[in-house]
Amino acid sequence: MSSLKLKTTILDRSISKGKNEVSLNGFALLFSEIVQYCQNRVSTVPELQAKLSEFGQQVGIRMLDLLIVREKNGKREIKLLQILIFIKSTVWKSLFGKEADKLEHANDDDHTYYLIEKESLVNKFISVPKDKGNLNCAAFSAGIIEGILNTSNFVMYMNHTCKSDSTLAQGNNIYD
């Protein structure tokens, strides 16, 4: 008897299975190319950050679809706090290998939440030229959050800041 091996293609594999790791070097190279691609198509830092945010929104839309199938069996979150916890934990872990550091609720506004990330992976390998001194590539991460929330039908205003004050250590990325 001869044993025949059936060829399996990527389409034959289950979507729920997959490696949860991406090479850090591969990510750094790919993200660096994304930044260069965007930089060659804009002239100012705000335009560059907006372009990075647009890329992030597309990633967020696709990650939401993938993670809902993998993690939630097709069920989407319909409450704001639950989707924010999902972003902080599941999405961040899938994309960056760790959860975001904090999710805080603003004291003065019931509809304002802060997702805090102390060391952003997207800023780790980017060297900012002097002429683009205030560039923060974490606009890409803010775009991911915005893409997920918009796709989940949450009306929102997204703001990304890099703050340093008495309560936060230098370089924290805050998405509110």
Describe this structure as you would to a colleague:
With 176 residues, the chain is α+β, with helices and mostly antiparallel strands. The chain has a single domain, classed as Trafficking protein particle complex subunit 3 (Muramoyl-pentapeptide Carboxypeptidase, domain 2, 2-Layer Sandwich). 44% of the residues lie in helices and 10% in strands. It contains five helices and four strands; from the N terminus they run αααββααββ. It has helices at 24-39, 45-71, 80-96, 121-124, 139-151, and strands at 102-105, 113-117, 160-163, 172-175. A four-stranded antiparallel sheet has the order 1-2-4-3. The protein starts with 23 loop residues before the first helix and ends with a strand. The model is unreliable at 164-170 (pLDDT under 50). It comes from Daphnia galeata. It holds the Pfam family TRAPP. InterPro entries: NO_sig/Golgi_transp_ligand-bd, TRAPP-I_su5, TRAPP_component.
**Low-confidence regions:** 164-170
Structural class of the secondary elements?
A: alpha+beta
Q: Please write the CATH class name.
A: Alpha Beta
Spatial separation of the terminal alpha carbons? 65 Å
Based on CA atoms alone, the radius of gyration comes out at 18 Å
Strand content: 5-15%
CATH architecture: 2-Layer Sandwich
- For the biggest β-sheet, the strand order reads 1-2-4-3
Question: What's the number of structural domains?
Answer: 1
The number of helices is: 5
Main sheet record: 4 strands, antiparallel
CATH fold field value: Muramoyl-pentapeptide Carboxypeptidase, domain 2
Q: Could you name the CATH homologous superfamily?
A: Trafficking protein particle complex subunit 3
User: Could you report the average pLDDT, rounded to the nearest whole number?
Assistant: 82
Helix percent band: 40-55%
Please tell me what the overall shape is: globular
Task: Summarize the helix and strand pattern as letters.
Answer: HHHEEHHEE
